[in-house]
Amino acid sequence: MNPKTVLRVEDFAKQFFIHEQQKVIPSSSNVNLTVESGCLTALVGPTGSGKSSVLKGIYRSYLPSEGSIFFTTSLGDTLDLAKADEHQILDLRRNEISFVTQFLHCLPRQKTEDIVAQPLISRGVKPSAAIEKARQTLDALNIPERLWGISPATFSGGEKQRVNLARGLIAKPRLLLLDEPTASLDPVTTNRVLEMIEALKHENTAILAIFHHMELVERVADQVVTLEPPVLTESILENIA
Amino acid sequence: MRKVLEVSRLSKIYGPGCPSCIEKTGPEYETNICPDCNSVVAAHDMSFDLYQGEILGIMGESGSGKSTAVKCLFFDQEPTSGSATFYDQGQTHSLFDLNKAQQRRLSNHRFGMVYQNPHLGLNFDITAGGNIAERLLMSGLDHYGDIRERAIELLARTEVLTQRMDELPRNFSGGMQQRVQIAKALATNPPLLFLDEVTTGLDLSVQAAILDLILEIQQQEKTSMIVVTHDLGVIRLLADRTLVMKYGRVIESGLTDQILEDPQHAYTQRLVASAL
Amino acid sequence: MSSQQQFGFLDEHAKKEIRRTALKAVAIPGYQVPYSSREMPMGRGFGTGGLQLTLALIGKGETLKVIDQGADDSVNAVNLRDFIQMTCPGIDTTSFTEEADLIQSRHRIPEKPLREDQLLVLQVPYPDALVIVESSEAKRKVLHGEADYSRLLVKLYEDIVKFKEITIAHRYPTRINNHYVIDPSPIPRWDVPKLHNSKALTLLGAGREKKIYAVPPYTQAIPLAFEDMPFRVENFDDENGQRRACERCGCTDSFLDEYIDSETGNKIYRCSDSDWCEEQMGFPRSDTADYLPETTVTNVKSSKELVNA
């Protein structure tokens, strides 16, 4: 394995079995990719090719059905995220892997700056320093200062997404998973986000991203992986039979 | 992260029990009542662990046995079989092998419990401050001024107006009673906290504030918690990992976001589908 | 008394059981030892617990003093003394504290310090200090066993919150030998310190509740309190901060009873311990066992058990 490789996905597949309908629904299959430190790998493919499923499988929001997801930790150990135990995953989420989705889940009363600072605080950064850093990140993402002290519950879609981004980017993870991070952003803010992504790359973050525009892929991707629509793999079919 | 608790093969059967109790109950039989001897299998073969600062959710509908583990761990009930090990201050306690006095010492000093019904956790005939004082007095504090100070600190921490500390909890709103209960549970800085349906029956805005408080405590004190609830929203907001129970069995367990986004068991799939 | 009547009214088995119970009570200071309290020819609540202890322990040639509310001549004390004298031929009675081998009392411990060769028997209505915070006896036993008195302390806490001080006037919960908390019978707070490291053995008997417990000689008896809110005895200072004196003997270091002078309507204060008061007044200390002081108070209308300044 290339010493720069942070993530290597081999023959990943994900199917859902819906009990209600007694049906297997393939979500992605035959996924092979690598992500290297300081590089961005872009996942592309038609709608339904399972791009988000790959990210969720790596983050373990989905249980991978097949394949291996080798992740090299900051200590240099390699472990298979598909098989890692839950405490290991929680530990990696806390310290090494961030996931920015299109949706923001947070407590209704929490202040925006607290939400953004949270990943730093749970890594042991002093709250005051974490909040200072959160403000800088919010500022960099064009979130007006008057919003920092209130809950993002009432924010627009674009604002929520930026808060989510700020939270994902703030801790400078080893591996960053981005699911359409700029989907509802205006061109100016999109540019800001891309600048921040570039900055993270310079700090050796490995990034696996899904973009809604090929033009963005061309601007920031070091590597492009194209997914094909999924098929049911034989082993799964055998299992069900 | 340090392991705080390890529960292994915990079972609780109410009634005489017979060989069919286990064979003929559970989700496949859609009952937890033994058809042969009418015993109730409240929980069978529960195993899980808990790390420092972690929140474990136990989710299920009423009668699923979701509160059973917490009741056994807090010594409110005796398990039928199984073991639980509590790792605390360099010591290892095999919880169900301790005598009653040792168990009470742990539940008074090292565990905290917050019940759905504040009547179970609070004495309504003594003041809010007195309720907190009781737990402090149990731990050997015998300086009135110090007790007052600590009670004020705890009530402020849980956002109860400290001017009201000398009022009886019966005059408080439901949300405020829960806050006093939480303050009482926190009095001895326990490393392990049990929360049994603590927000059930409260107004939504009050619920949110209580959940917020719980998360804040978890982050600041690194308290490990077991949260028992039927509410998917509570699980989503609080729990790192979740056990799903039905008819006295753990039918599924995993990372909370995985349970909610990629549930494996038919029951969990239905539950999640109907909630979203 | 017929010749078949047992000495001490109780049969020998009953007396033996009470003595054994008392020994166990001494062995476990403050622990309430259950016993099969016998029916006595008087209503429960009239001191049958103390009476059974006295009857089981007193022997021929020994001298008995019986007091009630500090006085030897109150109805209850007189009746009990008469009954014991009648059923225990060969004993002597006295009102002088220093003459008595055995003192049976309700409400008071004599002011004069007791000696090692004396025995104090207290009549107790409610033996369990925890009864005010826990109604289940089974649970109280567990609390006693684990010496968990936090709920009693909460009661004190609540008192201070409400009244700025501990308001328990009598039956003040007292911790014996660093473990069991007892209800020291209806003695006022004034008498509680007398239990601490007392030279005499104190036995407490609750007839209705069927319990005997003890504060052995030279044993710690510490009233429950907070470090910064210490236990205090009754305050007998007047409005000017001057310690009140007994209106009869002038004593300023005894427990005082408050009376209303029926003629003037004024409050007057007198020693609660009548024997003590008479000794202060210089009454002769006689060897005559049958001597009983005459009642000298004639204009008394009502009395209170204690004074709370």
Describe the structure.
The complex is a heterotrimer of chains A (241), B (276) and C (309). Chain A is an alpha/beta fold. Chain A contains eight helices and nine strands. Chain B has eleven helices and ten strands. Chain B has helices spanning 20-23, 68-73, 100-109, 118-121, 128-138, 144-157, 174-186, 204-221, 232-238, 256-261, 266-275; strands at 3-14, 40-51, 55-59, 81-88, 91-94, 111-114, 192-196, 224-229, 241-246, 249-255. Chain C has two domains: 12-131 and 159-223, Rossmann fold, CATH 3.40.50.11310; 256-308, no CATH class. Residues 294-309 of chain C have low confidence and may be disordered. In chain C, α1 packs across α2. A seven-stranded mixed β-sheet of chain C has the order 1-9-8-5-4-2-3. A three-stranded antiparallel β-sheet of chain C has the order 7-6-10. In chain C, strands 12-11-13 form a three-stranded antiparallel β-sheet. Chains in contact: A-B, B-C. Chain A binds chain B through residues 16-20, 56, 60-63, 86-87, 89-91, 105, 107-110, 121-122, and chain B through 1, 51, 54, 205, 208-209, 211-212, 215, 219, 236-237, 240-241, 254-255, 257-258, 261-262, 264-266, 269-270, 273.
